[in-house]
Amino acid sequence: MTGPKLVRISTASPALGVRLCSYPRPPAVVIEVGGEIDARSVRHVSRYLIGFIHVGRPLVLDCSRVSFVNFAGFRAILRFATECRQTGRDWVLVASDAVKLLLPTATGLRLPVVDTLDEALLRLAQTPDARWRLRSITTLESKKLAGD
Fold it and tell me: Start and end of every STAS domain (predicted)?
């Protein structure tokens, strides 16, 4: 498995006004973000989030403790959402009131938003394991499977 270790990892920077923490909580890895996501902290937050894209588990981005987020900070969340979608990573966003204020600006993205961590974990527990999802196969793969 690549990416951050699946133990509680906490980084805090009083100068940046943000707290980042991650820990395993089956069936997912929870990434907690607290404080303010703004021009001062956005680069730090963005790098931290993207580091989890290739973890071999579903992800919960728990922003329930985010007290302020500006457009630059919200773009970091949207970048995370885009990376999850492009890599096929199952994930859920737990949004604070501050994050919910900006959700209408994400038109067309259909973000998987819930109100609590428990809701997020329940949703991910009900998602079929990605290894069992059906996918299209090529003619060459079909011939190999048939023994031709």
Answer: 29-95
* Secondary structure E strands in the chain: 9-13, 18-25, 28-37, 59-69, 91-95, 113-114
Q: Which of 25, 113, 42, 107 is nearest to 33 (CA)?
A: 42
pLDDT tens, position by position, for the chain (148 residues)?
444 444 555 565 666 789 999 999 999 999 999 999 999 999 999 999 999 999 989 999 999 999 999 999 999 999 999 999 999 999 999 999 999 999 999 988 889 999 999 999 999 999 776 444 444 455 665 556 566 6
Q: What six digits make up the tokens of 95?
A: 């949004």
Global pTM reads: 0.79
The domain defined by 9-126 carries CATH number 3.30.750.24: yes
